[in-house]
Amino acid sequence: MLELQYELESKAAKWYATIDIANAFFSIPLAAECRPQFAFTWRGVQYTWNRLPQGWKHSPTICHGLIQAALEKGEAPEHLQYIDDIIVWGNTAAEVFEKGEKIIHILLKAGFAIKQSKVKGPAREIQFLVVKWQDGRWQIPTEVINKITAMSPLTSKKETQAFLGAIGFWRMRIPEYSQIVSPLYLVTHKKNDFHWGPEQQQAFAQIKQEIAHAVALGPVRTGPDVKNVLYSAARNNGLSWSLWQKVPGETRGRPLGFWSRSYRGSEANYTPTEKEILAAYEGVQAASEVTGTEAQLLLAPRLPLLGWMFKGKVPSTHHATDATWSKWIALVTQRAHTRNPNRPGILEIITNWP
């Protein structure tokens, strides 16, 4: 689903419309020879499904594939699809309306049902896959913010896990997310008794504030004047990196995403340089998913790193394995070489975080 959001972010559209197919699974008949495997008994009577049942693990994949095939056969206009949810976009309401009408016609012809109440737009602002979209930027819907910020302090591991699940989807909008919520994860560990102390309360209050003030991400812009700036840093309790885009006239630019995580296993024992390289390595991976592998990255770590990568040699003092160093070197050097020999894929500046 994240890949769909990255792609939609790159469209920077002005108008949107969404289509949610009604009872999509039940619109798909099961072949007679397949029905016995879906037999069940209820109150002493045996039944079997004759339509694709909800709850079967393969139903979403089958449903998505059949809808996709119908849209391709009907030569549907540009759109994005996630199972039975579809979104179209454009620069005018009329353009979006026409695209939506054509897709609805294709789906009806293929035997799927469309309820008018399930069609939204054309609109400048719309909700698709939980996310609110406007001008190619994705943000947290107001109702989600209100629900999270209204929550009372948590009283059990189960409540804490549910809260972390609710906010985790939005972590790309929260700088230093992993570091902020680490006290909450601590009380969910099986070996730990649940104890809601001052650290947990502070983390709980802080993350709710971060959710309430989270910035919109995107849109992803392209062109020779666009600068993709990747800030990365390794701190005592984990790694952080963020991706920004700047165009002429912008001082700070617009954020495309914030990432963070705690150290895993032996990573906490890495040298300071290795930790910074690890942060940059994972940052380059994340940035490439958002902007593509051909867009130039301006890498802004806290220590000079590219020199180590281009040497292609593991330093004499190191804690990461040779295989890990080889992995770092391979990714960064490969990303640095694009099809344009006059435009390197990665440049480096040493700077403070924005």
UniProtKB/TrEMBL annotation:
PROSITE patterns hit by this protein: RT_POL
Domain (Reverse transcriptase) ranges: 1-168
E.C. numbers: 3.1.26.4
Source superkingdom: Eukaryota
GO MF annotations in UniProt: RNA-DNA hybrid ribonuclease activity
Signal peptide range: none
PANTHER family attached to this UniProt entry: PEPTIDASE A2 DOMAIN-CONTAINING PROTEIN-RELATED (PTHR33064:SF29), POL PROTEIN (PTHR33064)
Family label: Belongs to the beta type-B retroviral polymerase family. HERV class-II K(HML-2) pol subfamily.
Protein name listed in UniProt: ribonuclease H
Organism: Hirundo rustica rustica
Record lineage: Eukaryota, Metazoa, Chordata, Craniata, Vertebrata
